Amino acid sequence: MPAPRPAKPRLFQDGRDMFWSMAPLVLVCIVLAGVLGMCSFTPSGPTAGAPPSYDAHAALQADARQFSFPIREPSLPEGWRANSGGRDSVDGVPLSRVGYLSPSGAYMAVLQSGAPEERLVPKVNTSLVPRGPEDVDGVHWVAYEGDEGAEPLWVTRLGNAVTVGVTGAGDTDAFRTVARAVQAATPLPR
């Protein structure tokens, strides 16, 4: 007959053995994460960092050289700054997008494409429907609105060559400011 197993030490006779096994490992992980700078603790919450900057001038010049439709660089008032941009396409037709931050921090984007309005609008948001016309210094814009949470979109055709859209989280004054700046800009040289 085999000999009975020796008695388990008192420390390992209940559920505390798992705690005492894991506690040193967790403590080592916390110390390493703190030392290596992989985590931080801010009781008051995160702080707002500086928004990214974007060279809209260089991007729009490159778009003007590459795209077959005229590209405009809006000259926005003091306090506005470009923070993002990129290219996309609308059913194979190129689309240029540059995002701006207003002085109040509202994001606004300028879209420029050779695609017609009826193809550009669903590219932005399929839930958008026409709300009505907007007149900005004699230029006719069509304002679109969508479902709850959808950003409005204003669209016009400039020079019968480029469809311009303005969208974002700004108020009507922000839309008018951006629309006015785009329509006043002359096309960049190819």
Which secondary structure elements does this structure contain, and how are they paired or packed?
Elements: H1 16-36, H2 56-66, E1 81-90, E2 93-101, E3 107-113, H3 117-124, E4 129-136, E5 139-145, E6 153-158, E7 162-168, H4 172-184
Antiparallel strand pairs: 1-2, 2-3, 3-7, 4-5, 5-6, 6-7
Pfam families: DUF4245
Protein name: DUF4245 domain-containing protein
Structure description:
The structure is a single chain. By secondary structure, the chain is of the alpha+beta class. It folds into two domains: 8-44, no CATH class; 56-184, MucB/RseB, C-terminal domain (Phosphorylase Kinase, domain 1, 2-Layer Sandwich). The chain has four helices and seven strands; from the N terminus they run ααβββαββββα. It has helices spanning 16-36, 56-66, 117-124, 172-184; strands at residues 81-90, 93-101, 107-113, 129-136, 139-145, 153-158, 162-168. A seven-stranded antiparallel sheet has the order 1-2-3-7-6-5-4, sandwiched between helices. The model has no long low-confidence stretch (mean pLDDT 91).
